[in-house]
Design goal:
The protein is built from 10 helices and no strands. By secondary structure, the chain is mostly helical. α9 runs antiparallel to α10. The longest helix has 29 residues. This is Major facilitator superfamily (MFS) profile domain-containing protein.
Amino acid sequence: MVRTAERILGTYFYDTSFGYLSESKAAGLAIFLSLGTVLGLAIAGNLFAQRKGRQRKWLVTRLYIITIIACYSLAILAIPRLRYFVDSPELIIFFQVVSSLCMGFGIAVMYSLIPGLVGSAFGRHRGSYIAYTDGVAFGISSIVWKVVANAVGNGNPDGGGWAYGWAAVALLIVLCAILMVEFMEHYFVRGHGKHNGTYETIILA
């Protein structure tokens, strides 16, 4: 969902800028999501490669928290009353760009590295696994963004609908985070020891 968000981020920036941004400039700001992903691979990806088992799980947990906070930040920054209160389009745009950057940073490891690790278990069927998971992921994300589009279309003409849209995305990422952390506990952590991490997953939830 986060990686495909670059297709709609430009519209988000434009709709919530009160006309301060042109369509072309707003579309250009979406690149910060990809830039965040590159930074995430360079920094968090390197940390992930150096760690094992439970340390990897806790790193992924923290990265999910960063992503969730970034999504909620985008939701809050879309609230018209807040933007009217701040009365500074430049400041709002700055925080939106920073949130987009953090969102890309937070999701980089889960999007780019973990699928490859899981795919290695499929041997010669690794290509089919990657293709299948990508297809399912893009299918689900298209449904999610359709729901977001409806929320935006039926929301405040000043872009207030984006607040509901990003809040919904954040809630879905919370669910994904719980599933991913529990998946890592079962398949990456418990294989290296007998420590039970169920309570850690509950704490994350």
